[in-house]
Amino acid sequence: MGSGNSIWRFILTLQKWFHYFYKKWIFFNARAKANRLRKGVIRRKGVRITNRRLLKTIKDYSKHKFGTTAYWPYLALYTEIRGEFVPGWMPYDYYVFILLPNLNPRPGVLINDLKTYDYRLFGDFAIKPLLIYVSGMFIDPDMEIIDRKRLIKFLSDYNDTIVIKQEGGRGGKEVSILHSSEFVPEELDKKKNYVIQPYIRQYKVLDDLYPDSVNTFRIISFLRKDGLVKIIYVMLRFGADNLKVDNLSSGGYYLYFNLNGNPDSKIYEWQTGIEIGDRHKNTGYVFSDIEIPMFHDMLEKCRQAHKKFPYARVIGWDVCIENTGEPKLIEWNAEEPGFYPFEAKYGPLWSEDDDIWDLEYSVKHLNK
User: Fold this and answer.
1) How far apart are the first and last CA of the chain?
2) Check whether domain 108-118+203-334 has CATH 2.60.40, yes or no
C-alpha cells in the first residue's frame, strides 16, 4: 500500500513539473516569435520606434497591468506595428495562454469542432446541412438515417455544387467543393465525421470584391457577466490570386470594419501590419466603397447565437452573406477566436469595464 502511494505521488510530481516546463516552453516560443516579427517590421519599415526609454515604459506597464514585465515582447511588437505605444493593450501571450483558458474552459469549447451539430445548436442562423456523416452513417437534417439507395437518389436529384467539411478542420483545410454527381460516399474516412452543405452564392458586393472564394466576416463576441454580449471587433476576409478560400493562414487578406459598419480604407499584412493598398489586387474593387446594409443584423445574430452557448465567453463567428442578403454562420471558434494583430492596429479592443482584467490570472498561474 505504501509503495503504491509513493508511486502515485511520484507520478503527480512528474505531471506538475511537466506542466510547469511546458508553460515555460510555450511562452518562450511565443515571445521569441514576437521578437522575430518585431525585427521584421523594423527592417521592412526602415525605422525603429521602441528605443530604450520606451521599452522601459512598456515593461513598467506590463508589470503594473499583468503582474510581470515578461509580457513586453508582444507589446513592443504592437508598438512597432502601430508606430506608438498605446496603454490599455493586452499582450497576445496573456490573451491566448492565460485569459482564454479561464474564459473558455475545456471541455465545453471543444463543441466548436462538431460542425455536424451547428444547425442543431444555432438553428437557421447556421447553414442547413444537406446531410451529415456521423459514426459511419448518413443522416438527413431531421436526424433520420438514410440508406445508400436514398443517398444516391438525393445526390442525383440535387444536381448542384456541394461543400464537404470534415470536423476538426482548420484554416479552410479539409474542405472539398464539388458537384453532387461527383461525390463518392465511400471515399469519406469512416473514422471521421463530415457535414455536407449547399454551396453558398454570396452577396453581390462580396462577389464583386473577389468571386473565387466565399468571403466571410470574422466577428468576435464577448459574453459579459451582466448577460450582455459585446462585439469586440469585425473583419472581412477574402481571397486573391485564384485562391478558393479566404483564410489568412492560407493566403487570404482581411479588411477591418468599425462597429458602425464602415470599412477601413486600406488593408494590411496580417502578421506585420504593413500597408498593402486601398483596393483588391485582382478585381480593383476599392475597399472604402464596400457597403453592407445587413451589417447590424449580422452582429445581432451573433449576439443571439452567443447566448445559446454560455460555456465560452469569447467566440469568433465566421459569417457569410447569401445572395439574398441573409447572414449565415459558416463556422465558429471558441478555442482561439483570434486577437493579434487587430489589437495592435485597432486596439485596445477591451475596455476597463470588461470584466476580464484580473491580475490574479497572471500572478497565480504564471508568476515569472
Assistant:
1) 38
2) no
